[in-house]
Design a protein that fits this description.
about 60% helix, mainly alpha
């Protein structure tokens, strides 16, 4: 069994996170190599100049790599990207649970349904139908 090291914590700018997300989705031809490649980057919502500024750091961090004339996310880059998405989802779910808790006295049935849905104790349809009111 292979034991792997924990994922490093990475502080990136929003533009760097955006570039990493795009490269996880699909490799990108180097926008600095031709006008057509620059236009293709712009079509994906990527600033070619920002790519040129961010590539050295993201490469140094081993989050992206150059494969021939393309930039692509590394396995580490994809893992860091998906961990960030997971953490963001966890924060949002926590906020939903806190909202339900804040309204427990004014809308107890809704608060209970939201909490049980967030915990995975009921499905969305069950929560809507009122099944969440019944204790497990």
């Amino acid at each position: 069994m292979q034991i792997s090291a924990p994922l490093p914590h990475v502080d990136l700018t929003e533009a760097q996170w955006g570039l990493l997300a795009e490269l996880v989705t699909a490799p990108l031809h180097d926008p600095g190599s031709s006008l057509a490649d620059a236009e293709a980057a712009v079509a994906r919502g990527i600033d070619p100049g920002q790519v040129q500024r961010d590539e050295p750091l993201l490469s140094w961090l081993k989050l992206i790599e150059r494969r021939e004339d393309r930039l692509a996310a590394t396995v580490l880059g994809a893992a860091v990207h998906y961990r960030r998405l997971c953490e963001s989802s966890e924060r949002r779910l926590s906020e939903v649970a806190r909202l339900a808790e804040a309204h427990e006295t004014t809308a107890p049935h809704l608060a209970l349904a939201v909490r049980r849905l967030a915990q995975g104790a009921v499905t969305f349809d069950e929560a809507l139908s009122g099944a969440a009111r019944r204790p497990a």
